[in-house]
Every structure is written in structure tokens, then in C-alpha cells.
Amino acid sequence: AGTGLVMTGNCGTGKNHLAVSMAKSIVREYLASVQITDVMRLTRAVKNTWRHGADSTEEDVIERFASLDLLIIDEVGVQFGSPTEMTILQEIINARYESVLPTILISNLTFEQLKESIGERIVDRVTDGGRNRLAFGWESYRAIAAGITA
Question: Is the model's pLDDT at 108 over the cut of 70?
Fold first, then answer.
């Protein structure tokens, strides 16, 4: 249905684990095209088209990310926050939104910090006005498994 989702929470709380499980299930059940990436790789893929003799164009790369049945973007808010990065992220998310394709954003920031980092417009579109978000508010599983508690 094109509904997106934002997952926020500290490191080690299971955001990626859940995203990978969802991706595998969706691929198995629907034979869907799904990609899990992070903001830096997504930005780098677009920027690599700007080199002389690049194999693909900027439009090709944006179209590839914009046309996947599901795109999961991790490490949102970790990037430098440059205008170029924000423009690339916004263009891909807007294209997916207009095509009614779901996008999942994963961040270690709080929901409010995420809106400050990448902009309220992007977060609003992915969460359908803030309704589609999961906050992973518990301690890191890795820290608990290692015997480290806050």
C-alpha cells in the first residue's frame, strides 16, 4: 500500500534484525525487489555517477532506488547532513512516495532528533504524518549479552 515506517532507538535494540526479517519475509512471500542500504552508500552511489566515464547516470541510480518494491535505509542521521545528501535523500523518498512504494528508515536518533536531522517533510512522508513509527526504547541486547548494563 506504499506505507512507510520509521524505526528509532539505541544501538543493539533489534531495529536491523527486524528490518532484515521483514525484508526476507517480503522477498519470500511476494518475490519483491528489496534493498537494505544506508544513507552514505545511497549518497555515494549517486555521487559516483558524477565522475568522468561513470557506468551509469544520476537518473539511473535514483530510478533504481526509487523503483524497488521496498527500500530500507539504515544509519539515517549519521551522515554529514550536507545539502547534497539531503537533496538526494529527499528526491528518492519523494519519488517513492509519489509511486506509492514503501520506505523504511532506521535511525539511532530519537524521532524528534530525526526530524531535525533530515527534515520534517521527509519524516512526515515516510511515517504518513507520524503514525507509522516504532521506538525501540529498551537497552541494547548486545550490551545485556555482554553483561554491561546502564
Answer: yes
Count of the separate structural domains present in the chain: 1
Question: By CB neighbour count within 10 A (0-12 exposed, 13-18 middle, 19+ buried), where does 43 fall?
Answer: buried
pLDDT at 81: 72
Phi, psi of 31, rounded to the nearest 5 degrees:
50, 40
Q: Which residue has the cell 537518473?
A: 59
Q: What is the CATH number of the domain that holds 50?
A: 3.40.50.300
Q: Which residues contact 75 (CB under 8 A, 6 or more apart)?
A: 38, 39, 40, 106, 107, 108
pLDDT band at residue 82, thresholds of 50, 70 and 90? confident
Q: Is the dihedral of CA 13, 139, 110, 131 positive or negative?
A: positive
